[in-house]
Amino acid sequence: MGDVTTDAPGLPHGIHVRPLRREDIEAVVAIESEAFTTPWQASTFEGLLGRDGIELLVMIDVDDGVIGYAVLWVILDQGELANLALTTNRRGAGLGGHLLRHVLDRARERGVEKLFLEVRASNARAIDLYRNFGFEDVGIRRAYYESPKEDARVMLATFGS
Ligand SMILES: CC(C)(COP(=O)(O)OP(=O)(O)OC[C@H]1O[C@@H](n2cnc3c(N)ncnc32)[C@H](O)[C@@H]1OP(=O)(O)O)[C@@H](O)C(=O)NCCC(=O)NCCS
After folding, report:
1. Nearest-CA neighbor of 71 among 90, 84, 88?
2. Distance (Å, rounded) from C-alpha 96 to C-alpha 125?
3. Which atom of ligand 1 is nearest to the CA of 88?
4. In the chain, pLDDT over 70 holds for what percent of residues?
5. What is the value of pTM for the model shown?
6. CATH architecture of 15-113
7. Which of 21, 43, 51, 66 has the most CB atoms at less than 10 Å from its CB?
């Protein structure tokens, strides 16, 4: 994967999405810790850097640096959106949709036909976002999450070949 900026049309001025670099990890872990009760550690992101089948993307604001990130796993024609988060003060303004669009573009480029994700059943904003991008409910994993214990909704987007 080349370390190039993917400055697709439609992104707000001063914001772009590019592959995660080692120096981004501290900021990404800070966002991860704000967003999730059992956050991944820096060592997890370091271990994923450069691995086959992993896409790590960051959303960069020219003034504020890393404001969001996403993690995509790809195995043959299936993918899993493992993580997607924005820093707290940049949520609710549509940026999650821009980041998700980049993830979906990368998934398609890598030949993914089915993209799965799990989301906390109470996470209405994320569920709305995924629905807007064509994800559909395909199942429930009971008590999948800890702290607090909660079901996961399993959602699936299917790309035409
Ligand atoms: C989930 C997340 C990435 C969404 O990004 P965002 O930029 O905040 O989302 P948006 O502003 O585009 O809102 C997404 C949709 O949810 C709707 N929405 C916003 N707030 C909502 C709320 N409190 N309840 C229900 N729906 C809501 C919006 O109306 C929007 O739908 P629309 O485009 O039809 O208007 C972001 O909020 C985040 O980082 N959350 C914490 C981490 C997280 O939960 N990640 C997902 C884990 S699976």
Report:
1. 84
2. 10
3. 39
4. 94
5. 0.92
6. 3-Layer(aba) Sandwich (3.40)
7. 66
